[in-house]
Amino acid sequence: MSVPALMSRTSFVELNARERARALLDVGSFRELLGPFDRIESPWLARQNIVPQADDGVVVARGTIGGVAAVVIAIEGAFQGGSTGEVSGAKIAGALELAAKDAEAGKPIRPVLVFETGGVRLQEANLGLAAMADVHAAVVALRAHVPVVGVIAGMIGCFGGMGITAGLVSRLIVTKQARLGLNGPEVIEQNAGVEELDSRDRPLIWSLTGGEQRHAVGLADDLVADDADALADAVRAAFDRGAPAEHASERIAFWRARLDRLPAAPEGMALRKLWTGDRP
Amino acid sequence: MSDTNSRSWSTRRDDKLRRVRAVEAHADGKVLRTAEMVAALEAVLVSGDRVALEGDNQKQADFLSRSLAKVSPEKVRDLHMLISSISRPEQIDVFETGVAKKIDFAYAGPQSLRVAQLLEDGALEVGAIHTYVELYARMFVDLTPRVALVAAEKADRRGNLYTGANTEDTPTIVEATAFGGGIVIAQANEIVDELPRVDIPGDWVDFVVKADRPAAIEPLFTRDPRLITEQHILMAMLAIRGVYERHGVVSLNHGIGFNTAAIELLLPTYAERLGLKGKIARHWTLNPHPTLIPAIESGWVDSVHCFGGEVGMEAYIAARSDVFFTGRDGSLRSNRVLCQLAGQYAVDMFIGATLQIDGDANSSTVTTGRLAGFGGAPNMGHDPGGRRHASHAWLDLKTDPSPTARGKKLVVQMAETFQSGGVPTFVEELDAVGVGQAAGMPIAPVMIYGDDVSHVVTEEGVAYLYLAADEDERRAALAAVAGVSPIGLRHDPRRTDDLRAKGLVAYPEDLGVDPTEASRSLLAARTIEDLVEWSGGLYAPPAKFRSF
């Protein structure tokens, strides 16, 4: 990015979930469903001495993208690490299910998921896990009709069950600051020891899970600069492109073959060398 | 009188030669064998010696300090250590073994709890807690080191040293020791045949040794722009309009912190829009803050002289030699003492953040239970009475029309009225008072004295303390910007209009600052990665600051 571009852009990473949804929708079209004034919040957190939030950390917004009806589901990383609980999970799954209904009825709909999450909310354990299954099922049902677009901007990234969701979308857009994985680096360090993975070694973490790496090895489709306009353009372009002939997550033989060729020391550069050009 | 003829006048030199000969068994010429470092120290040191161990807030002679920690207390005891900044655990271990007894220091950040504990246990005796410049000055008066243990990046076999970007304190310690008849031992990351340049001549150095691993250097002056808040930005806007623009501040020093980092990042945006380029902030005494890169790239900065280096800034500095002081080889030459001197006598303003301010504007970063010391902030944060040359800003603070009155350096404190966690910044009594009493210090460890402070900037506004007619007015002006802190609550709101009319207090609207404009989009760089972009890829941020 040139210096004038740096100065004039709006950083998408810095926007909160509500502002992110607004930035991706056509100007003036943003309309929130189940917003904070509806006060649909987690019934479990207060019992664990955690202050709940009136939107439970998920913003569902209707509007248009490229003039076509759209729904943007944006997760707020600043609330409980963007974790998925009973309510926030239900908001995501419910919005996707409504979109599927529209799509089945032949109504145009452009669904976007904006991830910023460590996965299931541990304080709501099984309810969060159950919600995650609903979300996965809803994405698979919806993508049969219309493309589902995912965005990971950073700084939390997208981990846990939502890492799987990101793997299910039709097209995944990331920034260099994004991270994508199943277990987060801190979890790996805690379980397998610092020798396995030093979660404070930031260049190492990004060389494995960072947006640039995930894009280079084909686990993300578009690498876009941290600029709200550029991301909105990329989202629009993803819908204009239409649904892929086959979703990446359906190509089981392809991924299995990759795993069979896993090098002894699967560090970032080695994987990039091995897998670059080998696009799903 | 006959004593004059019979006594020797070269005992220090004779003793030095004897000790150097004793160490030669462990060396090839001037190069000590790394594996024999502990034995060499046992040969050179005598119990009770005064030993300068180089360690400041950035560079540490850590191979030598780890070797010293292995010296047997059977052979060497009761050393008197001079350490500007106590940063490493082994610098304190020597007091537990009895190898060292007394210490003079300036700062004890990471080890401040242990220092306080050992002091209480009687295992450590403190000579004095100094500021940096005082400790170095005393090395030339009554604390001349017998042995100096210092750090260089490279050395050659004749003892010439290349200290490069992190030259910092080394020349001063070496000068005091070498010319005071003491022994200088330098660790180096590499022993080479050809140095990039000579920072310290080999004639001043008795021995060099290759360190087992490179000297530890902390990136202490890097502030991630991502952590700058809108409150910091508002305060930066107030400072730019209410202080820099108001007084035409051309030469200055910035402390470390997010407040001043925000100012650096507003120069190419907010201040540029105000038409201030070329009129303020042109000459700096400052460590190479990465957050200054956008201002440099936008042509704001004429010169920067540095106390020390900053990890990751090397290539950028080498490519901007018009701005930074660099050697013929292109790399930065820093010098802490000379930069401190420049910061005292040559610049018009010091501006920095603090943790506590009392009703008289005395401030301190000392908090209960920690004996952290001063570092260099008091050296910069005062109005030097010995200054005689005039400048626009210095004269602008002259309030007394008498022909024999002098101008004043701007000493500006920037602080939010509350710290994180709802702890008030403005307090009835500084924690430093209690800490000083508990540690038996003769005076409280005040960082910056209120009578030196000319301005205080908070998110509420600017207090122009130098304009106060008396103590009472001064306290009232300070309280008017202290928000709802204990000091701010003392403030009588009916008096505010009077203070504003007299120009002692300015709120945002008085300065033409719109608080709703204080957003992060005003920052020329919002992330470390933006700084890399601004530098054209020359700035290489340390790993811990990367998020890409």
UniProtKB/TrEMBL annotation, chain A:
Domain (CoA carboxyltransferase N-terminal) ranges: 1-253
PROSITE patterns xref list: COA_CT_NTER
The name this protein goes by in its record: Biotin-independent malonate decarboxylase subunit beta
GO terms assigned for molecular function: acetyl-CoA carboxylase activity; carboxy-lyase activity; transferase activity
Chain coiled-coil ranges: none
Keyword Lyase belongs to the record: yes
Any one Gene Ontology BP term: fatty acid biosynthetic process
PANTHER family, per the entry: ACETYL-COENZYME A CARBOXYLASE CARBOXYL TRANSFERASE SUBUNIT BETA, CHLOROPLASTIC (PTHR42995), MALONATE DECARBOXYLASE BETA SUBUNIT (PTHR42995:SF1)
InterPro entries linked to this entry: AcCoA_carboxyl_beta (IPR034733), ClpP/crotonase-like_dom_sf (IPR029045), COA_CT_N (IPR011762), Malonate_beta (IPR017556)
EC number(s) on file: 4.1.1.87
Ligase among keywords: no
Keyword line: Lyase, Membrane, Transferase, Transmembrane, Transmembrane helix
NCBIfam families registered for this protein in UniProt: malonate_beta (TIGR03133), PRK07189.1 (NF005530)
Organism: Methylopila capsulata
Gene: mdcD_2
Top EC class, one word: lyase
Membrane-spanning intervals of the chain: 148-169
TrEMBL record, chain B:
SUPFAM superfamilies the record matches: NagB/RpiA/CoA transferase-like
Alphabetized InterPro entries for the sequence: MadA, NagB/RpiA_transferase-like
E.C. designation(s): 2.3.1.187
First-level EC class: transferase
Coiled coil: none
GO molecular function, one term: acyltransferase activity
Record keyword Transferase present: yes
Keyword list, A-Z: Acyltransferase, Transferase
Signal peptide range in chain numbering: none
Protein name stated in the entry: Malonate decarboxylase alpha subunit
Gene that this polypeptide is encoded by: mdcA
